[in-house]
Amino acid sequence: MLAVGVVCLRCRQRSCAWRVSPSGGPRRSWSSSPGPDTDSVKPLDGVKILDLSRVLAGPFATMNLGDLGAEVIKVERPGAGDDTRSWGPPFVGSESTYFLSVNRNKKSIAVNIKDPKGVQIIKKLAAVCDVFVENYVPGKLLEMGLGYEDIREVAPHVVYCSITGYGQTGPMSQRAGYDTIMSAVSGLMHITGPEDGEPVRPGVAMTDLATGLYSYGAIMAGLLQRYKTGRGLHIDCNLLSSQVACLTQVAVNYLICGKEAKRWGTAHGSLVPYQAFRTKDGYLVVGTGNQQQFVTICKVLNLPALIHDSRYKTNHLRVQNRKELVTLLSARFAEETTGTWLRLFEGSGIPYGPINSMREVFAEPQVLHNGLIMEMDHPTVGKISVPGPAVRYSGFTMDEPKPPPLLGQHTVEVLTTSLGYDDSTIRDLLRAGVVAQAEIQ
After folding, report:
1. CB neighbours (10 Å) of residue 421?
2. What is the pLDDT of residues 164-196, one digit of tens each?
3. Fewer CB within 10 Å: C terminus or N terminus of the chain?
């Protein structure tokens, strides 16, 4: 399923077009030699992902894998589907915009995994897939016969990625974990908010998104490991570990220096000036990482006296005298509009930018240039737009995305093409409620 540019497990030659199949025998696959139309080949073409995750972290990971060419089979509950299908308003028709935001390039199958026949369908699909992703509380899928050991028996080649709140083991492992709770427990809320105000939840679910990105990278590493060893493995990703790892220098300040963290609003604990300043009609954020940048800011603001002020000669001194300096800078920034400051800072070499609304974000020329608005034709609501992929590649493009699927839109297709079920078997499963198929008007 994935063999482009990898060492063959049979003969150890990189250019061989054979590899070990899940059943242990050789299977014809891609050769590493470039074909006539390599621009249309994506890194994960041929990789199949069975996705039992819901809400955000898991779906965000698998959507990014789907952008790279993987076939993502999203398993949902008949009738209800992914929790986020009901998270709204806003809705577009009957579709939740939350669901639409993280589920492009996927196929949806509706399977009742509480039914033994549904469990068998999942196991059969796992045997023909490369990756298995789930975000159930530890032990829940094991009770259903779909834990890692169960899947490894039928699919020893599978990279099995579990995404949880706290991890597979430990004193808190059985707790449910949502982004808001994890941002609190991990300390993220403790360092987010106004300097003298209450803790604040970040505007998007950064802990979920960080975990999705960690999972995305871990799955890629798991696939590489699988093609080195011929064996699958179990990946343990969790929200708590992801967010604590992302505390970076704030955590190290405590671990090495014993310095407790605090909230700084838009400011930075170790750099001054490095924050938002109110202008006559909005806000401008500026940052200084060295002395030359501070000098330049003073020149742009026409405050030359600050350059030679002994209190601000170094960043260390500026941090010590933060309050006085910020008061002076704030008074100056308030004298002009944001647009005026943008023109004055243009070409200065200083990191700067306005605090944009969503309307302003998606009107930014650079956002448009970077292709960060992706349009798709949805089967029931028509044309929709979502944020596009963050990364560009020279060897292929990510155009023509598939829209987020309807609940169970691809059930019959997947059972037919991936498992070879005949029409009679599928009709029986539909009648029994083991699976469901979306009706597109």
Report:
1. 19
2. 999 999 999 999 889 999 999 999 999 999 999
3. C
